[in-house]
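The records we work with from here on pair a chain with its fold. These numbers are not coordinates but entries in a learned vocabulary of local backbone shapes. To see the layout at work, look at the sequence and tokens printed below.

. . .
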Amino acid sequence: MTGTIDGHRVRDPHGLHADAEDQVRQAASEVRRRVGDQYDDQVVQRAVREAYDEISDHAKIESFLPILVARAAEEKLGARR
């Protein structure tokens, strides 16, 4: 949701949080699709959250975040084997 303050477009911070959670869900879904039942759901979620926290601040194009996070999380899981 967007609005305006003093003529400037601003996004509702609640919407930003929802967008982030949606991106994390998308990434987790992609990781689960790739790794199947090799890892417990909590382990996948933790790897995805860690990857998101590391990547999201530096992302240039937000629409690529879910796939970049999924790849990074998958690498983290592979390193834990």
